[in-house]
Amino acid sequence: MANPFKPTAGMTPPVLVGRQRDLDDFSYALDDGVGAPGRLMYVTGARGVGKTVMLNALGDLARQRKWQVIDETAESKFMQRLIETLRQSPRRGIGSVTLPSASMSVAGTPVDAQVNLGSVEFEAAEHALNFRMAMTERLDKLEKKNRGILITLDEVQASSLPEMRSLATAVQHLIRERRNVAFVFAGLPSMVEDVINDDVLTFLRRAERRHLGDVPLAEVRKAFQETITQNGKHADADTLDTLAQATNGYPFMIQLVGYWAWRDSQANTRDSQDELTIENACEGIKQAKIKLGDMVHGPALDGLSAMGRDYLLAMAQDDGPSATSDIAKRLERDLGYANVYRTQLIKEDIIYQSSYGYVDFKLPYLRDYLREHGAYHQMRKNLSGSE
Ligand SMILES: Nc1ncnc2c1ncn2[C@@H]1O[C@H](COP(=O)(O)OP(=O)(O)OP(=O)(O)O)[C@@H](O)[C@H]1O
Ligand SMILES: [Mg+2]
Q: What is the number of other CB atoms lying within 10 angstroms of the CB of residue 178?
Protein backbone atom coordinates (compact mmCIF):
# COMPACT_ATOMS: atom_id res chain seq x y z
CA MET A 1 0.00 0.00 0.00
CA ALA A 2 1.36 3.42 -0.92
CA ASN A 3 2.43 5.57 1.99
CA PRO A 4 -0.18 8.34 2.22
CA PHE A 5 2.10 10.88 3.89
CA LYS A 6 4.13 13.23 1.70
CA PRO A 7 7.25 14.65 3.33
CA THR A 8 8.38 16.28 0.10
CA ALA A 9 8.73 20.01 -0.45
CA GLY A 10 5.80 21.42 -2.35
CA MET A 11 3.84 18.14 -2.32
CA THR A 12 0.21 18.57 -1.44
CA PRO A 13 -0.43 16.67 1.81
CA PRO A 14 -3.33 14.22 2.23
CA VAL A 15 -4.98 16.76 4.55
CA LEU A 16 -4.06 20.43 4.53
CA VAL A 17 -4.18 20.98 8.26
CA GLY A 18 -5.26 24.25 9.84
CA ARG A 19 -5.49 26.39 6.72
CA GLN A 20 -9.23 26.44 6.08
CA ARG A 21 -9.58 30.05 7.10
CA ASP A 22 -6.97 31.21 4.57
CA LEU A 23 -8.64 29.19 1.84
CA ASP A 24 -12.08 30.55 2.71
CA ASP A 25 -10.79 34.11 2.62
CA PHE A 26 -9.29 33.61 -0.80
CA SER A 27 -12.49 32.00 -2.11
CA TYR A 28 -14.33 35.04 -0.82
CA ALA A 29 -11.94 37.39 -2.61
CA LEU A 30 -12.35 35.52 -5.88
CA ASP A 31 -16.13 35.56 -5.64
CA ASP A 32 -16.26 39.13 -4.38
CA GLY A 33 -15.20 40.40 -7.78
CA VAL A 34 -12.68 42.76 -9.28
CA GLY A 35 -10.79 44.88 -6.77
CA ALA A 36 -11.36 42.65 -3.73
CA PRO A 37 -8.41 43.23 -1.40
CA GLY A 38 -7.68 39.52 -0.88
CA ARG A 39 -6.79 39.18 -4.55
CA LEU A 40 -3.36 40.64 -3.95
CA MET A 41 -1.65 38.56 -1.32
CA TYR A 42 1.69 37.50 -0.02
CA VAL A 43 2.37 34.38 1.93
CA THR A 44 5.33 34.12 4.27
CA GLY A 45 6.60 31.82 6.96
CA ALA A 46 9.51 29.62 7.91
CA ARG A 47 10.87 26.81 5.77
CA GLY A 48 8.53 23.87 5.60
CA VAL A 49 5.55 25.76 7.00
CA GLY A 50 3.61 25.12 3.82
CA LYS A 51 3.93 28.18 1.58
CA THR A 52 4.24 26.25 -1.66
CA VAL A 53 1.38 23.89 -0.89
CA MET A 54 -0.69 26.92 0.08
CA LEU A 55 -0.04 28.42 -3.36
CA ASN A 56 -1.14 25.10 -4.87
CA ALA A 57 -4.32 25.11 -2.81
CA LEU A 58 -5.13 28.72 -3.71
CA GLY A 59 -4.53 27.81 -7.35
CA ASP A 60 -7.03 24.97 -7.04
CA LEU A 61 -9.67 27.38 -5.77
CA ALA A 62 -9.16 29.56 -8.83
CA ARG A 63 -9.16 26.54 -11.16
CA GLN A 64 -12.47 25.41 -9.70
CA ARG A 65 -13.80 28.75 -10.89
CA LYS A 66 -12.36 28.06 -14.33
CA TRP A 67 -9.69 30.70 -13.97
CA GLN A 68 -6.40 30.38 -15.73
CA VAL A 69 -3.69 29.78 -13.13
CA ILE A 70 -0.03 30.36 -13.85
CA ASP A 71 2.45 29.13 -11.25
CA GLU A 72 5.94 30.56 -11.50
CA THR A 73 9.06 30.61 -9.37
CA ALA A 74 10.78 33.96 -8.97
CA GLU A 75 14.03 32.81 -10.48
CA SER A 76 15.86 34.78 -13.12
CA LYS A 77 13.80 35.58 -16.23
CA PHE A 78 10.47 34.74 -14.68
CA MET A 79 8.84 37.70 -16.43
CA GLN A 80 9.87 36.27 -19.76
CA ARG A 81 8.45 32.89 -18.81
CA LEU A 82 5.17 34.44 -17.70
CA ILE A 83 4.85 36.26 -20.99
CA GLU A 84 5.57 33.09 -22.94
CA THR A 85 3.04 31.11 -20.92
CA LEU A 86 0.37 33.72 -21.50
CA ARG A 87 1.02 33.71 -25.22
CA GLN A 88 0.94 29.95 -25.48
CA SER A 89 -2.46 29.88 -23.87
CA PRO A 90 -5.00 27.92 -25.84
CA ARG A 91 -7.54 29.66 -28.09
CA ARG A 92 -5.44 32.71 -28.56
CA GLY A 93 -6.20 33.59 -32.11
CA ILE A 94 -4.33 36.89 -32.26
CA GLY A 95 -0.74 37.18 -33.39
CA SER A 96 2.16 38.26 -31.29
CA VAL A 97 1.61 41.32 -29.15
CA THR A 98 5.26 42.29 -29.08
CA LEU A 99 5.49 45.91 -29.95
CA PRO A 100 8.35 47.26 -31.97
CA SER A 101 10.54 48.83 -29.36
CA ALA A 102 10.39 52.23 -31.08
CA SER A 103 6.73 52.54 -30.20
CA MET A 104 7.17 51.74 -26.54
CA SER A 105 6.53 54.43 -24.08
CA VAL A 106 7.89 54.59 -20.63
CA ALA A 107 5.93 56.61 -18.11
CA GLY A 108 6.91 60.26 -18.33
CA THR A 109 9.41 59.69 -21.11
CA PRO A 110 8.91 60.81 -24.68
CA VAL A 111 9.37 57.99 -27.13
CA ASP A 112 12.46 59.62 -28.55
CA ALA A 113 14.20 59.55 -25.23
CA GLN A 114 14.22 55.81 -25.10
CA VAL A 115 17.47 55.36 -26.89
CA ASN A 116 19.02 56.90 -23.81
CA LEU A 117 17.72 54.27 -21.47
CA GLY A 118 20.17 51.81 -20.08
CA SER A 119 19.62 48.33 -21.45
CA VAL A 120 18.58 46.93 -18.09
CA GLU A 121 16.01 49.64 -17.54
CA PHE A 122 14.89 49.22 -21.07
CA GLU A 123 14.45 45.50 -20.67
CA ALA A 124 12.51 46.00 -17.47
CA ALA A 125 10.18 48.48 -19.13
CA GLU A 126 9.76 46.21 -22.10
CA HIS A 127 8.96 43.24 -19.89
CA ALA A 128 6.40 45.20 -17.94
CA LEU A 129 4.73 46.35 -21.11
CA ASN A 130 4.81 43.00 -22.86
CA PHE A 131 3.50 41.29 -19.80
CA ARG A 132 0.68 43.77 -19.50
CA MET A 133 -0.19 43.38 -23.17
CA ALA A 134 -0.17 39.59 -22.94
CA MET A 135 -2.36 39.71 -19.84
CA THR A 136 -4.77 42.13 -21.46
CA GLU A 137 -5.10 40.04 -24.56
CA ARG A 138 -5.80 36.93 -22.55
CA LEU A 139 -8.18 38.67 -20.17
CA ASP A 140 -10.21 40.14 -23.04
CA LYS A 141 -11.25 36.58 -23.83
CA LEU A 142 -11.51 35.12 -20.35
CA GLU A 143 -13.53 37.95 -18.89
CA LYS A 144 -16.30 37.45 -21.44
CA LYS A 145 -16.90 34.14 -19.74
CA ASN A 146 -16.49 35.64 -16.30
CA ARG A 147 -13.10 34.03 -15.85
CA GLY A 148 -9.86 35.55 -14.70
CA ILE A 149 -6.14 34.95 -14.28
CA LEU A 150 -4.33 34.05 -11.08
CA ILE A 151 -0.56 34.27 -11.01
CA THR A 152 1.34 32.66 -8.16
CA LEU A 153 4.99 33.47 -7.69
CA ASP A 154 6.96 31.27 -5.31
CA GLU A 155 10.42 31.68 -3.74
CA VAL A 156 10.51 35.44 -3.95
CA GLN A 157 13.91 36.63 -2.78
CA ALA A 158 16.17 39.64 -2.82
CA SER A 159 17.58 38.73 -6.22
CA SER A 160 14.09 38.82 -7.71
CA LEU A 161 13.73 42.54 -6.95
CA PRO A 162 14.41 44.03 -10.39
CA GLU A 163 11.96 41.69 -12.07
CA MET A 164 9.45 42.12 -9.26
CA ARG A 165 9.48 45.81 -10.08
CA SER A 166 8.48 45.14 -13.68
CA LEU A 167 5.79 42.78 -12.51
CA ALA A 168 4.52 45.26 -9.95
CA THR A 169 4.25 48.06 -12.50
CA ALA A 170 2.15 45.88 -14.74
CA VAL A 171 0.03 44.51 -11.91
CA GLN A 172 -0.70 47.98 -10.68
CA HIS A 173 -1.98 48.96 -14.10
CA LEU A 174 -4.10 45.84 -14.46
CA ILE A 175 -5.68 46.45 -11.08
CA ARG A 176 -6.34 50.06 -11.92
CA GLU A 177 -7.94 48.95 -15.17
CA ARG A 178 -10.21 46.72 -13.08
CA ARG A 179 -9.18 43.51 -14.75
CA ASN A 180 -10.22 40.16 -13.34
CA VAL A 181 -6.87 39.19 -11.85
CA ALA A 182 -5.30 37.91 -8.66
CA PHE A 183 -1.65 37.69 -7.62
CA VAL A 184 -0.18 35.73 -4.79
CA PHE A 185 3.50 35.59 -4.04
CA ALA A 186 5.41 33.66 -1.41
CA GLY A 187 8.81 33.69 0.23
CA LEU A 188 10.67 33.55 3.51
CA PRO A 189 9.71 36.38 5.88
CA SER A 190 12.87 38.46 5.56
CA MET A 191 12.96 38.13 1.78
CA VAL A 192 9.43 39.25 1.36
CA GLU A 193 10.12 42.10 3.77
CA ASP A 194 12.86 43.35 1.44
CA VAL A 195 10.50 43.28 -1.48
CA ILE A 196 7.69 45.01 0.37
CA ASN A 197 10.00 47.73 1.60
CA ASP A 198 11.36 48.48 -1.82
CA ASP A 199 10.38 52.02 -2.79
CA VAL A 200 9.16 51.05 -6.21
CA LEU A 201 6.96 48.32 -4.86
CA THR A 202 5.08 50.39 -2.30
CA PHE A 203 1.71 49.34 -3.57
CA LEU A 204 2.52 45.77 -2.59
CA ARG A 205 2.42 46.93 1.02
CA ARG A 206 -1.30 47.01 0.62
CA ALA A 207 -1.27 43.34 -0.31
CA GLU A 208 -2.88 41.05 2.21
CA ARG A 209 -0.30 39.28 4.27
CA ARG A 210 -0.62 35.66 5.34
CA HIS A 211 2.03 34.73 7.81
CA LEU A 212 1.76 30.97 8.04
CA GLY A 213 2.61 29.44 11.37
CA ASP A 214 2.04 26.33 13.45
CA VAL A 215 -1.27 24.56 13.16
CA PRO A 216 -3.37 23.49 16.17
CA LEU A 217 -2.51 20.06 17.58
CA ALA A 218 -6.15 19.02 17.76
CA GLU A 219 -6.38 19.46 14.00
CA VAL A 220 -3.11 17.61 13.50
CA ARG A 221 -4.45 14.70 15.52
CA LYS A 222 -7.65 14.65 13.50
CA ALA A 223 -5.69 14.67 10.25
CA PHE A 224 -3.61 11.70 11.44
CA GLN A 225 -6.73 9.81 12.36
CA GLU A 226 -8.43 10.51 9.05
CA THR A 227 -5.40 9.73 6.94
CA ILE A 228 -4.57 6.54 8.79
CA THR A 229 -8.10 5.14 8.76
CA GLN A 230 -8.86 6.18 5.21
CA ASN A 231 -5.82 4.22 4.13
CA GLY A 232 -6.81 1.02 5.85
CA LYS A 233 -5.07 1.12 9.22
CA HIS A 234 -6.07 1.95 12.75
CA ALA A 235 -4.30 3.82 15.54
CA ASP A 236 -5.51 4.06 19.13
CA ALA A 237 -6.01 7.29 21.06
CA ASP A 238 -2.61 7.14 22.75
CA THR A 239 -0.79 6.64 19.48
CA LEU A 240 -2.63 9.52 17.85
CA ASP A 241 -1.75 11.80 20.78
CA THR A 242 1.89 10.79 20.58
CA LEU A 243 2.07 11.39 16.84
CA ALA A 244 0.35 14.77 17.06
CA GLN A 245 2.47 16.01 19.95
CA ALA A 246 5.72 15.09 18.23
CA THR A 247 4.90 17.43 15.34
CA ASN A 248 4.64 20.56 17.52
CA GLY A 249 2.14 21.71 14.92
CA TYR A 250 4.91 22.23 12.39
CA PRO A 251 3.47 21.20 9.00
CA PHE A 252 6.53 19.56 7.51
CA MET A 253 6.88 17.47 10.67
CA ILE A 254 3.30 16.20 10.24
CA GLN A 255 4.32 14.57 6.98
CA LEU A 256 7.68 13.33 8.29
CA VAL A 257 6.22 11.75 11.41
CA GLY A 258 3.32 10.25 9.48
CA TYR A 259 5.55 8.93 6.73
CA TRP A 260 8.07 7.23 8.98
CA ALA A 261 5.51 5.84 11.41
CA TRP A 262 3.53 4.42 8.50
CA ARG A 263 6.66 2.97 7.01
CA ASP A 264 7.58 1.32 10.28
CA SER A 265 4.11 -0.16 10.53
CA GLN A 266 4.60 -1.78 7.14
CA ALA A 267 8.03 -3.08 7.96
CA ASN A 268 7.34 -4.19 11.52
CA THR A 269 3.88 -5.61 11.82
CA ARG A 270 4.42 -6.78 15.36
CA ASP A 271 0.74 -6.94 16.11
CA SER A 272 -1.36 -6.83 13.03
CA GLN A 273 -1.16 -5.53 9.50
CA ASP A 274 -3.96 -3.03 10.09
CA GLU A 275 -2.63 -1.44 13.23
CA LEU A 276 -0.27 1.49 13.48
CA THR A 277 1.05 0.87 16.98
CA ILE A 278 2.63 3.10 19.59
CA GLU A 279 5.94 1.38 18.81
CA ASN A 280 5.56 2.32 15.14
CA ALA A 281 4.80 5.87 16.22
CA CYS A 282 7.89 6.12 18.45
CA GLU A 283 10.18 4.67 15.80
CA GLY A 284 8.65 7.00 13.21
CA ILE A 285 9.19 10.03 15.42
CA LYS A 286 12.83 9.08 15.90
CA GLN A 287 13.40 8.86 12.16
CA ALA A 288 11.42 12.02 11.52
CA LYS A 289 13.64 14.05 13.86
CA ILE A 290 16.75 12.90 12.03
CA LYS A 291 15.25 13.79 8.66
CA LEU A 292 14.08 17.14 9.95
CA GLY A 293 17.66 17.96 10.86
CA ASP A 294 18.95 17.05 7.42
CA MET A 295 16.16 18.67 5.48
CA VAL A 296 15.29 21.76 7.50
CA HIS A 297 17.71 22.58 10.30
CA GLY A 298 20.88 22.13 8.27
CA PRO A 299 19.74 24.33 5.37
CA ALA A 300 18.19 26.90 7.72
CA LEU A 301 21.48 27.27 9.63
CA ASP A 302 23.48 27.45 6.43
CA GLY A 303 21.44 30.45 5.41
CA LEU A 304 22.36 32.44 8.53
CA SER A 305 25.28 34.69 9.30
CA ALA A 306 27.99 33.27 11.56
CA MET A 307 26.76 35.50 14.36
CA GLY A 308 23.19 34.33 13.84
CA ARG A 309 24.36 30.76 14.24
CA ASP A 310 26.35 31.64 17.35
CA TYR A 311 23.27 33.25 18.80
CA LEU A 312 21.32 30.01 18.34
CA LEU A 313 24.17 27.98 19.76
CA ALA A 314 24.19 30.21 22.81
CA MET A 315 20.45 29.63 23.19
CA ALA A 316 20.85 25.87 22.89
CA GLN A 317 22.67 25.80 26.22
CA ASP A 318 19.39 26.44 28.00
CA ASP A 319 16.76 23.76 28.39
CA GLY A 320 13.95 26.27 27.98
CA PRO A 321 13.58 29.93 27.08
CA SER A 322 16.81 31.96 27.21
CA ALA A 323 17.25 35.38 28.77
CA THR A 324 18.54 37.72 26.07
CA SER A 325 20.96 39.20 28.62
CA ASP A 326 22.48 35.73 29.24
CA ILE A 327 22.92 35.21 25.54
CA ALA A 328 24.72 38.52 25.16
CA LYS A 329 27.04 37.45 27.97
CA ARG A 330 27.73 34.11 26.37
CA LEU A 331 28.48 35.82 23.09
CA GLU A 332 30.67 38.32 24.95
CA ARG A 333 28.82 41.19 23.29
CA ASP A 334 26.68 43.99 24.58
CA LEU A 335 22.93 43.56 24.59
CA GLY A 336 22.33 45.99 21.73
CA TYR A 337 24.68 44.09 19.45
CA ALA A 338 23.18 40.73 20.36
CA ASN A 339 19.68 42.09 19.83
CA VAL A 340 20.42 42.83 16.19
CA TYR A 341 20.71 39.09 15.66
CA ARG A 342 17.77 38.38 17.91
CA THR A 343 15.63 40.59 15.68
CA GLN A 344 16.86 38.88 12.53
CA LEU A 345 16.19 35.41 13.87
CA ILE A 346 12.70 36.42 14.97
CA LYS A 347 12.02 37.82 11.52
CA GLU A 348 13.08 34.51 10.00
CA ASP A 349 10.66 32.63 12.25
CA ILE A 350 13.50 30.64 13.75
CA ILE A 351 13.04 31.96 17.30
CA TYR A 352 10.33 33.99 19.02
CA GLN A 353 10.03 36.22 22.05
CA SER A 354 8.50 33.91 24.65
CA SER A 355 8.13 36.65 27.25
CA TYR A 356 9.71 40.02 27.92
CA GLY A 357 13.48 39.65 27.70
CA TYR A 358 13.28 35.97 26.79
CA VAL A 359 13.51 34.09 23.52
CA ASP A 360 12.85 30.47 22.62
CA PHE A 361 13.16 28.25 19.56
CA LYS A 362 10.29 28.27 17.15
CA LEU A 363 11.48 25.61 14.74
CA PRO A 364 10.82 22.36 16.59
CA TYR A 365 13.78 20.23 17.67
CA LEU A 366 16.29 22.84 16.61
CA ARG A 367 17.70 22.86 20.14
CA ASP A 368 18.33 19.12 19.99
CA TYR A 369 19.86 19.44 16.56
CA LEU A 370 22.24 22.18 17.69
CA ARG A 371 23.24 20.20 20.76
CA GLU A 372 24.07 17.17 18.70
CA HIS A 373 26.46 19.11 16.56
CA GLY A 374 30.04 19.67 17.44
CA ALA A 375 30.02 23.44 17.44
CA TYR A 376 27.86 23.40 20.53
CA HIS A 377 30.40 21.49 22.54
CA GLN A 378 33.16 23.66 21.23
CA MET A 379 31.42 26.77 22.39
CA ARG A 380 30.53 25.25 25.72
CA LYS A 381 34.20 24.45 26.24
CA ASN A 382 35.23 27.99 25.40
CA LEU A 383 32.71 29.43 27.78
CA SER A 384 33.17 27.08 30.71
CA GLY A 385 35.90 29.33 32.08
CA SER A 386 33.78 32.48 31.92
CA GLU A 387 30.61 31.15 33.59
N1 LIG B 1 -1.14 22.64 6.36
C2 LIG B 1 -0.44 21.52 6.18
N3 LIG B 1 -0.87 20.33 6.68
C4 LIG B 1 -0.16 19.21 6.50
N5 LIG B 1 1.00 19.15 5.85
C6 LIG B 1 1.47 20.27 5.31
C7 LIG B 1 0.79 21.52 5.46
N8 LIG B 1 1.51 22.49 4.86
C9 LIG B 1 2.60 21.88 4.35
N10 LIG B 1 2.59 20.55 4.62
C11 LIG B 1 3.66 19.61 4.25
O12 LIG B 1 4.87 20.19 4.69
C13 LIG B 1 5.91 20.03 3.73
C14 LIG B 1 6.49 21.38 3.36
O15 LIG B 1 5.53 22.16 2.64
P16 LIG B 1 6.01 23.27 1.59
O17 LIG B 1 7.01 22.69 0.68
O18 LIG B 1 4.79 23.87 1.01
O19 LIG B 1 6.70 24.32 2.57
P20 LIG B 1 7.36 25.73 2.19
O21 LIG B 1 6.88 26.71 3.20
O22 LIG B 1 7.08 26.04 0.76
O23 LIG B 1 8.89 25.44 2.43
P24 LIG B 1 10.18 26.19 1.75
O25 LIG B 1 10.36 27.49 2.47
O26 LIG B 1 11.32 25.25 2.02
O27 LIG B 1 9.87 26.36 0.28
C28 LIG B 1 5.31 19.23 2.58
O29 LIG B 1 5.63 17.88 2.77
C30 LIG B 1 3.81 19.44 2.74
O31 LIG B 1 3.09 18.32 2.28
MG1 LIG C 1 8.31 26.29 -0.89
A: 11
Q: Are residues 141 and 262 in the same domain?
A: no
How far does residue 370's CA lie from ligand 2's centre (Å)?
Answer: 24
Measured from the CA of 8, which atom of ligand 1 is nearest? Answer: 29
- Residue finishing a domain among 196, 211, 226: 211
Domain count for the chain, please give it.
3
Q: What residues have a C-beta under 5 A from ligand 2, the ion?
A: 51-52
User: What is the C-alpha separation between 274 and 265, in angstroms, rounded?
Assistant: 9
- Residue bearing the CA closest to ligand 1, atom 8: 50
How far does residue 16's CA lie from ligand 1's centre (Å)?
9
Same domain? 321 vs 361: yes
Q: How far is the CA of 94 from the centre of ligand 2 (A)?
A: 35
Q: Of all protein residues, whose CA lies closest to atom 16 belonging to ligand 1? A: 50
Substitution site in 20, 52, 191, 219 for ligand 1 pocket (most atoms within 8 Å of beta carbon): 52
Domain boundary among 211, 227, 258: 211
229 within some domain: yes
> Residues 104, 39: one domain?
yes
Confidence (pLDDT) at 96: 38
With a CB cutoff of 8 Å and minimum separation 6, the contacts of 292 are 252, 253, 256, 364, 365, 369
As averages over each run of 10 residues, the pLDDT of the chain (387 residues) reads 92 95 96 93 93 97 97 93 86 41 44 48 80 95 95 89 88 93 92 78 83 95 97 97 96 97 84 86 96 90 90 94 96 95 93 96 91 65 55
Q: How far is the CA of 56 from the centre of ligand 1 (A)?
A: 11
206, 205, 200: which is closest to 170 by C-alpha?
200
- Do 222 and 370 reside in the same domain of the chain? no
Q: Is residue 182 domain-shared with residue 161, that is, in the same domain?
A: yes
Q: What is the pLDDT of residue 40?
A: 94
Distance from the alpha carbon of residue 37 to the mean position of ligand 1, in angstroms? 25
Q: Which residue segment(s) compose the domain that 332 sits in?
A: 304-384
Q: Which amino acid is at 211?
A: H
